[in-house]
Amino acid sequence: MADSICRTLRDGALEGELAPTLTIKDSLASPFAFHVFSHILLQLSSHVIAQKSQSQGIVIVALSRSPSSYTSLLKMNGMDVASSNKWIHILDCYTDPLGWKDKARKSANVTDPSQQISLATSSYKTVKDVDKLFLVIAELGRGLVGENKARFCVAIDSLSELLRHASMQSVAGLLSNLRSHDQISSMFGLLHSDLHEERAVAVLEYMSSMVASVDPYHHSADGQKGCLESSLYDQNFTKGKFNVRFKRRNGRVRVTCEEFKVEPGGISFSPVSSVDGTVIAGIVPKVQFNLQLSEKERIDRSNVVLPFEHQGNGKPIQIYDGRRSLEESNSEANPISSGKKEDSAMGEIIYFRDSDDEMPDSDEDPDDDLDI
Amino acid sequence: MEQKNWNLLDEALGLNNNNAKPWPLCGRFVLVEDCVDTSAAFVLHQILKRSFSSHPSSAVVFLAFSHPFSHYDRVLRKLGCNLAAQRDNGRLFFLDMLMLQCPDEGKANHDGLASVFEQIERVITALHQDKKFISIMIDDISFLEVAANGSSNDVLNLVHYCHTLTSDSEYGCAFIALDHKDIYLNGDRTAVMLEMEFLADILVKAEPLATGLAKDVHGQLMVLDKETQHRHGVSTVKTHNFHFKIKENGIECFYPGTKI
Q1: In chain A, which residues have their Cβ closer than 8 Å to the Cβ of B161?
Q2: Tens of pLDDT along A44-65?
Q3: How many CB atoms lie within 10 A of CB A306?
Q4: Among A232, A256, A342, A344, which is 20 to 30 Å from A152 by CA?
Q5: Is B138 a member of any domain?
Q6: Which residues in chain B are contacts of A114 at CB distance < 8 A?
Q7: How far apart are CA A50 and CA A148, in angstroms?
Q8: Is residue B4 situated within a structural domain?
């Protein structure tokens, strides 16, 4: 369902509606929300570049990744970083969220060591001030797309980090301000759900129209104890389940489930059904004979022509079901074999059914009225 | 340098991989977790030793919260590494934080651990000009929390700031920290540990054997290497599990069941 998430974010907000909001949440057992985040960011970027989306620019609020990691992410996926200034802007809350470095550098008079970051970046040094953060985001977006009706998209790379610095109320206020801002077409954010109280997670889920949750493939039976079981660990660190909850405007909720796989090139999604087979195959006890069909065997089986179906020689398929067929009722209730005079040497079976209300081959015991 | 006896721990941390980077841990955050039954301080000793012995242009900024310099000097001398000499060479910066006590919240000069970070950054800017590859080491996060008057948010802020120093656009340092798992066991205090585990690129967990204490095996290590996406486009996760035995002048690592 990663595609439909991207489509929804691409299509953006309707006039007079809140912007669609996606929360991606994960937990330590399957910490791949950032992979999903980058996947969606890349998809959306390509839509923005192709001018297929409602938003014409993206503002990334970077709290847990450095701006340079976004530069290399875009570069790695073949995007033109040089021309990206027109549609992407990073608000850097990562490098110096509390202004410590700033203070130290002012007193020691040291210049910033940051080298050439090719993406447009502004730094923000007072993360605790969430109201100002909203103003800065809105201003940056306006800078990207201009004053008119054009819209932009906001990506917050860690709501968890934001929640650590500021209170629940102010973060919720920020989100709702962003959603109702008339220049924002869509927004998405990342949340590590096990760092917060359930209450906080629920608040953020209420405020988002889509919740994508990254879940481990196998839950280890007793949390901590299972940590050293390496095979389980390995499996959880290559793939997992991707559950998405869409909330429509009218209140309808749709829940879908997919599988994801983490590969060197990124993350890929597949429908869950195709993998179910292998799961079942894993459950079937090991026996000496083969219980499963291989793909070739499956194809061969579907090609087998069943007896009594004379197929392929041009005649319509006739399977006698015990009643007179339409054809024969047209030809005035002849016995079934009457049309085949030329075959009479072959012998024939003449059968008249007693009545039409008798079910063919009924399961009824024919002798049940016997009184013995 | 070629004929080192790399053990499983070095391999799991990628320390034997000399051709990749001048110092393989550059730009990474290594979180070491141990518990009361099994101390993982030896992992720090091992990384210190490797950093000094096999990578001539590396330097270490060591924040000591649990033991004084003389302790580390003694331990590392057994491993064949002279810390005092390294300190005089300017390759080890030992910041003694044993008596650190932050002012209480609400006081005028309360700035959390900002002053600690300022010290670290000052050393690093100086080292960076010498083109050194720097590791920042914190020998006990839990004592850091004590120093911060139990404010886990202050601790996480410092950890975040140290983490920013690992990014490419800044100094590309390595950041290694040790913490104790079992002090976070009850309920609502787990956030510090979890948050650090989310941040970590390499997670080293030391645990006792499930079957109890043994003479020949002192515990088991799990090294989880989350190769993050921004490193050369790879994002695979590797886990290594092995047992270890701590000896007087080194450690012995072996796969379960292979010890004769």
Answers
A1: 100-101
A2: 999 988 888 888 889 999 998 8
A3: 7
A4: A256
A5: yes
A6: 169-170
A7: 20
A8: no
